[in-house]
Write a structure and sequence with these properties.
mainly alpha, 68% helix, 0% strand
Amino acid sequence: MSAPSPPRPTLPTLPTSAAPSRPASPATARPSVRRVREGRRVRCLDWRVRFAILSVIWGFSFLLIKVGTEAYAPFQVALGRVLFGALALLGVLLVRREPLPRGLRTWGHLAVAAVLLNSLPFSLFAYAELSIPSSLAGICNATSPLWGMALSMVALSEDRPTRRRFAGLGLGFLGVLVVLGAWQGFSGVDAKGTALALLAALCYPIGWIYVRRTLAAAPGSPVALTGAQLLVSTLQLGLVSALFTSAPASFPLWPTLSVVALGALGTGMALQMQYGLVTEIGPTTAQMVTYFIPVIATAAGVLVLGEQLHWNTPVGAAVILAGAALTQTRTGRRSPA
């Protein structure tokens, strides 16, 4: 819904069953039995293994973006990402026999969410990686929880500022300055590309706040809403690509496979996997995957693409993650997920 950023789920709450509300039928007459059977299928692979797989998929997303931009325009990379992601989730809905959401109001809100959570950040990350390493893009993505906490303190009344959260924000943005080498005048870092990546990370919490206010009570499962959102994003980016880019003259193997994998795995099936994790182990533990993404993105960029790594990059990334972790801690009574 990130990735790249990795992309993130489109709803702040996830039901224990993905089946939409509809009249009773033979398939839905015994929902408790059905949930047990689905739960057994989900748990056939230990959640720790799925957590590790999800971390790797989203961590490698920034490498896939980098490879994709070698042959395709950034808008086209973003278009392929949402297209194949939508196809993957539509396949899941087809197997489950779940319908897409209904109602013009719901689709209108999904269109705005698609801009904030898919079309805009995916395009910004692709443009950013034209001039910055994929490892730096992954680290910039890790600032999303920091932006989110700063915005939620203003926009969401239940998120009250605390000393610990303020400390986390300050520590996290200090880590950004360390990554960028502020003491040496940001030399060696492309300012435009870095700014685009940070702006992409900022889009996610803005989109989440919008979704929380408009779609939290929308009917339908998270998979159905996310699939619909990706469909809308495909239309948006298809129009933008037609207006501002020319059709590719060829389809090189590795860039094409990278875009397909980025969409089908990183934007489609990874979200489905995360829904299962949230249902099984809860949102607090499941969201910790965010802290592994920049580590894997950095390792992938250095080992696979041969990107240079200076000491301040991993040190700054560690400071960012520590700050993000502080902003996510809560004191007192726990609020419902």
